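Sorry, can you check?
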Amino acid sequence: MSIPSSCKVLVIGGGIVGLTAAAFLAKHGVDTVLVERRASPSKRLRAKFFYPRTIELYRSLGIDQKIATPPGTLSEAAVVHSLTGDEIRRWTLPAVGESAASPCVASSIKQQDLECVVRDTAERLGAHIHFAHALTALDQHADGATATIKAADGTEVLLHADFVIGCDGSKSMVRDLLEIGTTGLGDLVHSMSITIRCDIREALRGRPLSFAWVRQPDIAGFMSWSTDLVSVVLSIEYDPTNPADIARFTPENCYLLAARCLGLPSQQIEVVDIHPWCLSSWYAESFRKDRVFLAGDAIHSTPPLGGFGANTGIHDVHNLALKLVSVIQHSAPESLLDLYEVERAPVVQMVVGQATARLAQRSNIQLPLEALQPVLDEEMISMGYRYPILPHVELIPNPIVVHPRDLHAEPGTRAPHIWLHQAGVRLSSLDLFGDSLVLLVGSNAESWCMAAETSCRLHGLPVQCLVVGRDLQDPKCAFPAAYGVSETGAVLVRADGFVVWKTVRTNVFRHEDLLKVLVAAREVAEPVETIAAAVES
């Protein structure tokens, strides 16, 4: 299939973040093209742990069961002399089991396998995916951007897009073209990454280890492996300014280093790749320029501890994609897109800081004092972050994260999960969100709900109004406590599952009150007075 000459959204980069963006956009009927310079997905071992909140997002695409892994898979970590040798320390990884806060559990699927599922989903939903096509130039203008795309055979095409999302990694060409800088600690540790093909099932001896640090007198290393236990990545720290240190990593010596770290004969090991990489800690100074946005590793680089990098990038594009859907499909004002950076930047900075704090806690690397912050619970980081309460976008929530068990549908937070029934089918409250605004009200607020629904529809704003007790059954009566409302209360939730507004008790319905909320949320553009007058007439 050839590249079209135009589209609504162009996604640059075909890793997990770009593919996820394409899938969410295509789900909502947005004409989306994705280009990726590589001919096929990277075979290097990358992320392999995806938090429950991330699985919730994929649940909204209907693929959570396709990417599930057995409970307890690769649920521990250790510090070892070698994989078959003495353990210095072992511990259970957090956030690997079931949680009352989510209908989903974490998955240990390999990123490469996840990318295949998400790509198939995006294409099935209508996205146009083109690998072996590289961006070579990007020119912005008033109504979008024109990208020059070069195919593997050297031919070039021009593609006009209303919006562009750069998901092209930490060395992002899109970020460079936009002249957006980065801030943070920068490069911290240089390592040589050795990819090994080796069956390590015997070496693990039944231990559900996900990764391990290696500590030997002359080796400071980190090992991670695929979920099928036949591919290992060994990263060994080195000094790139020391020729003698670099000389350690000849192909022959890498076999010996791998054998020492695994504790296996070199004859059982095949070294398939050797490349340097740098562990770094930074975030972008801006997440967009006009109609071109950045997401994923293009806006943040985190040390791997905590496994936050890919998860955070997936959350980035979920937030952005649904804002683009509102603007493109539902005529929301383009000022809604300004909230992407307003909401995500504080979260990204928090995540980068938390990953770096874990590095400071669990390694011998000397880091500046600003990196030595308290380490927060992973469930808080991945599920309990808060966005600014509209319209006060300049006020960053303090604290930026709260444990999900202490959140009760406060504006700016993820709507809580509770089990409900709809038409006899059991579902999570989170399954109600994803397509439009949702107004959830208590059992005694039915007339208020009907008036609110009429008000929204008069202005072409898609909204689903649901009365708990009429449209939804709450067998455990969990809604009032979980959402912090009375039987006459109401909660307005965005398509991305975040609460826009709530009232513990409703009074007489006033169109202008709800419309003030919608204008503040940038779901509608008209001035409040104009809208109210239109309703009354």
User: Anything to note?
Assistant: The first helix runs from residue 16 to 27. The longest strand covers residues 182-197. The radius of gyration is 25 Å. The chain is about 30% helix and 25% strand.
